[in-house]
Amino acid sequence: MGRLDGKVALVTGGAQGMGESHVRHLIAEGARLVFGDVRDEQGQTLADSLGPGCARYVHHDVTNEADWQRVVEITTSTFGRLDVLVNNAGILRRGTIEKMPLAEFRQVMDTNLVGSWLGIKYVTAAMKSAGGGSIVNISSVEGFAGTAGLSAYSASKFAVRGITRSAAQELGRYGIRVNSVHPGGILTPLLREEAAAFASDTDGAAKVFGRMPIPRLGEPLEVSRLVAFLASDDSSYCTGSEFVVDGGMISGPGY
Ligand code: NAD
């Protein structure tokens, strides 16, 4: 028995990294799901590698309102209901406020914040019809502290906490729970690109993370297990809350 048996999920940004891990783990826990991304070849290859009848890949740009409407419709018509949304898609752009072009700031806000807001907006009716649901918004430890060069990313991840709390207040009466997840350094393509920017390579980044209470980078599956808990009825009394999975990164005085 999986903890998500009978549940239908929608995962954004599922073609690689943590999204791919969430797709694999939610299925392993018994869910059927639709996952989207803008990396269509990678997404379709992943879908083809999963067991028959449990997952479907669709092109889904989270910044596009019409895409959201289409993807929710595909999910309910393919699997008959919608119980879980994982707002995972996200991008990171580095640059000081002085140097970052406004268009880049807006692109980050559009993907990380507006994308999650649209997700909540368009799954609500389907979740009401299902008698309830769980929305998991992926924020970051950057949602608690700012970092030089990450103003857009940090602002977007702080804001995800705000919409999580507002949505929890709006939707609790319908049995829809809304929580945020705050990963620290997790080994994904995004982190590899970041590591190249701030520590020349992944080994350099690992040294930075080696000073933490759990002295290593996290694996995507270690976040997926938390996502599955929040998606499942095991977390039936949790809503409007922030769940940190960071190896203790933000627990110490240095953060
Ligand atoms: P990743 O870059 O490996 O994967 C992100 C996925 O989102 C990619 O497949 C990408 O194509 C997709 N995506 C980007 N823009 C999109 C759009 N407009 N519409 C749909 N899909 C889009 O990154 P990751 O590390 O797996 O990150 C997943 C989430 O976790 C992000 O929200 C990220 O901010 C967050 N996060 C990552 C870390 C980390 O250390 N890796 C830490 C904290 C939070």
Structural account:
The protein is an alpha/beta fold and 255 residues long. Helix content is 46%, strand content 15%. It has 8 helices and 7 strands. The protein has helices spanning 17-28, 40-49, 65-79, 102-129, 151-171, 189-199, 202-209, 220-231, and strands spanning 8-11, 32-37, 55-59, 84-87, 133-138, 176-183, 242-245. A 7-stranded parallel beta sheet has the order 3-2-1-4-5-6-7, with helices on both faces. Helix 1 links the parallel strand 1 and strand 2. It is globular and about 45 Å long. The chain starts with 7 loop residues before the first strand and ends in a 10-residue tail after the last strand. The site of nicotinamide-adenine-dinucleotide has 28 residues, from helix 1 and helix 6. Nicotinamide-adenine-dinucleotide (NAD) binds next to helix 1 and helix 6.
Could you give a short description of this structure?
This protein is of the alpha/beta class and 255 residues long. It is 46% helix and 15% strand. α2 links the parallel β2 (32-37) and β3 (55-59).
